[in-house]
Amino acid sequence: GDSVTQMEGPVTLSEEAFLTINCTYTATGYPSLFWYVQYPGEGLQLLLKATKADDKGSNKGFEATYRKETTSFHLEKGSVQVSDSAVYFCALPIDGTDKLIFGTGTRLQVFP
Amino acid sequence: NAGVMQNPRHLVRRRGQEARLRCSPMKGHSHVYWYRQLPEEGLKFMVYLQKENIIDESGMPKERFSAEFPKEGPSILRIQQVVRGDSAAYFCASSPPQGAAFFGQGTRLTVV
To answer: Which 8-state DSSP code applies to residue A67?
Structure first.
């Protein structure tokens, strides 16, 4: 069945460091792919998405490219800030609906 | 356009009581999804509803849990005879047909 696998956290970085959070997926067909972010005590917010192979989603300095050949959708940011500290979830819809399968989440901690 | 509104934000129930969680979708959204997030875990799909219809309840526990999305009013997730293991954050999401899901801030249920 469809699934999402994320790297385990926490990821601990200093401010202005480069960030990569790995996400790989298995799916029937070519679904859209999403990254959601959950700040402390808050709900999930859509961070970025890509709808087809080779698409690059970007928002707030974060990027992720839909790689069909490696079934990956890794999240990257060139220079993280303390305010980026949150839990990041990779997700994809299944069964042609917006029912989402989430990865287990990766906690990012950025220190000044 | 207000976002997805969930209430209450925090709910404390004693074992054996009933918990009622409410979700008002974004204006124009006809699809509602409920997810549960256990501590230190990702979100798990529970149920997908459209107005007056349960479309997919494959993630709902077989007993004590029910959900509805009436023609008028918010969607309700009801948990009867709560147990400690029901303590979690419950998130509602809404979407238009074939659109990205927007999440509420969640209801944190604590069973004491």
So the answer is: B
